[in-house]
């Protein structure tokens, strides 16, 4: 054994990072027993290569270079042709075959990733009891069932490929196969809940360590688990682009032209159906997470919603974070809360039905954060990317000044709200315009040059009292108080002889926008 230990140290030893064993699946922990278990497995793997424990220890003492991540084959179809074959094809035909090959290669990659998700993530986590079978089924869904689906397309493309590597017609294959993608409705509809559960499970140290170990392994290509689970959805949205690329390089007199146009129509219909189903599932997911502080906040239009037009985080005028949902028929402002490690959304104030919703697109600097209005203080705290939503009827006394993260997100919100209330605009526009001067409580604050009318002042005072009472009752339940609704407004006295003329001026200068 002494001679064996004195063997030259340059003898080739397979690096530990390349050993394929259960040790790669065990996360590094400080527990001594688990560490010894991992070392034992590693020593077994080295012995299979006819190495002694002493040599194994010597190789362990070296710092093995990290194995680079695997890379996908990016060879183009034209690079696999011989020179004579390439010269016999036109440039347009080469591009067409490139597009077909890209579709075929993408199917092969997808199949490999679906198998990898099962082999490298699902099965080890189940065997090591890192997650329960029920949790894994909820996260992975029926991912395995889609492997034969894509294998069928790949086989059909292989059969249609000639010995020289070209495909004459792909249209009939696609027209027959694409309707089968409706099978993804259930998987895509479950993605939101699956992602939420996965994020929750990542709080578990064992899950976190396992996923980190996989991320650092070459097979992952530096992709996390969710990237693999989301690959089918990202593949679905690529099909129309791939088909259009093939069609773009197909000669007009080719028999595939009309069939490819039909295939594009089919896949667009499939994606539309999947999106509709996914939207309904997403809508219901958030509805189930709403919490109400008052029974009056409940509205049948919330429970009956089938579409979520827009949702995301916004800030109110005090800088408090709100999570806002624009359902098809109602706008709901909420506060994100956590209940037993479960995300929930506490409804904030009274939801605003779309048909009663007014939108005001405010300019940067019109409102200042913290309840200060333009001209009150310096320019440092001027709010940007702001807009205001409110009831048409002043009786609820609710108005919300909201701030988006940037101008892009603000425009998204404004466009979504305009689209939602557009059907009600024509019938109610005239009546709304007449009521605007009486709804200008906050607009008066933001425009010191605009005078107030005594009737408005009285109404503002009453509204302020009502809002303060509402705020006091809401604060008992822990809701955020928005100073612009809770505080009484400062008004300017106007000589009574000028009321009518100034009212006419106000109607022309009003910044409030009905959309």
From TrEMBL:
Its main location: cytoplasm. Pfam families: RhoGEF (PF00621), SOS1_NGEF_PH (PF22697). InterPro entries: DBL_dom_sf (IPR035899), DH_dom (IPR000219), Endocytic_GEF_Adapter (IPR051480), GDS_CDC24_CS (IPR001331), Net1_PH (IPR037853), PH-like_dom_sf (IPR011993), PH_domain (IPR001849), SOS1_NGEF_PH (IPR055251). Keywords: Cytoplasm, Guanine-nucleotide releasing factor. One of its GO terms (molecular function) is guanyl-nucleotide exchange factor activity. Residues 48-71, 437-515 are annotated as: Disordered. Residues 489-502 have a biased composition (Basic residues). One of its GO terms (biological process) is intracellular signal transduction. Coiled coil: none annotated. GO terms for cellular component: cytoplasm. Residues 307-422 form the PH domain. It is found in: Cytoplasm. This is ARHG8 protein. Residues 503-515 have a biased composition (Basic and acidic residues). The gene is Net1. Residues 95-277 form the DH domain.
């Amino acid at each position: 054994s002494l001679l064996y230990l004195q063997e030259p140290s340059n003898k080739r030893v397979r690096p530990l990072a390349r050993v394929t064993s259960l040790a790669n699946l065990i996360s590094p922990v400080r527990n001594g027993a688990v560490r010894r278990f991992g070392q034992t497995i590693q020593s077994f793997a080295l012995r299979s290569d006819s190495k002694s424990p002493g040599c194994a220890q010597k190789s362990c003492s070296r710092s093995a270079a990290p194995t680079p991540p695997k890379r996908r084959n990016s060879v183009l179809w034209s690079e696999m042709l011989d020179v004579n074959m390439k010269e016999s094809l036109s440039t347009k035909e080469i591009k067409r075959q490139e597009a077909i090959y890209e579709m075929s290669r993408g199917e092969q990659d997808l199949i490999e990733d679906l198998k990898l998700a099962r082999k490298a993530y699902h099965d080890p986590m189940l065997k090591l009891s890192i997650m329960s079978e029920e949790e894994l089924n909820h996260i992975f869904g029926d991912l395995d069932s889609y492997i034969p689906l894509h294998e069928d397309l790949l086989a059909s493309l292989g059969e249609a490929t000639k010995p020289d590597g070209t495909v004459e017609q792909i249209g009939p294959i696609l027209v027959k196969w694409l309707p089968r993608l409706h099978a993804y409705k259930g998987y895509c509809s479950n993605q939101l809940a699956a992602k939420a559960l996965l994020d929750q499970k990542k709080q578990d140290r064992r899950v976190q360590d396992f996923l980190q170990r996989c991320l650092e392994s070459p097979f992952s290509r530096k992709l996390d688990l969710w990237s693999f689970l989301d690959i089918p959805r990202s593949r679905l949205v690529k099909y129309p682009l791939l088909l259009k690329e093939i069609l773009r390089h197909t000669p007009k007199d080719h028999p595939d032209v009309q069939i490819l146009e039909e295939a594009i129509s089919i896949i667009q219909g499939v994606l539309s159906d999947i999106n509709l189903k996914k939207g309904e599932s997403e809508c219901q997911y958030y509805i189930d997470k709403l919490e109400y502080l008052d029974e009056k906040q409940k509205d049948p239009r919330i429970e009956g919603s089938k579409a979520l037009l827009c949702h995301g985080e916004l800030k109110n005028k005090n800088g408090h974070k709100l999570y806002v949902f624009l359902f098809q028929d109602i706008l709901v402002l909420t506060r994100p809360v956590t209940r037993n490690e479960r995300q929930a959304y506490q409804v904030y104030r009274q939801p605003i039905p779309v048909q009663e919703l007014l939108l005001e697109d405010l300019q940067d600097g019109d409102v200042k954060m913290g309840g200060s209005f333009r001209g009150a203080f310096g320019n440092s705290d001027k709010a940007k990317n702001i807009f205001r939503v409110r009831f048409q009827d002043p009786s609820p006394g609710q108005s919300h000044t909201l701030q988006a993260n940037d101008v892009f997100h603000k425009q998204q919100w404004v466009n979504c709200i305009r689209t939602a209330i557009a059907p009600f605009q024509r019938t109610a526009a005239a009546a709304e315009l007449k009521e605007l001067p009486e709804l200008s409580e906050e607009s008066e604050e933001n425009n010191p040059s605009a005078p107030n009318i005594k009737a408005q002042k009285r109404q503002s005072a009453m509204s302020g009292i009502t809002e303060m009472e509402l705020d006091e009752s809401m604060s008992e339940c822990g809701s955020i108080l928005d100073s612009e609704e809770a505080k009484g407004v400062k008004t300017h006295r106007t000589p009574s002889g000028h009321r009518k003329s100034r009212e006419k001026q106000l109607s022309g200068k009003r910044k409030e926008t009905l959309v």
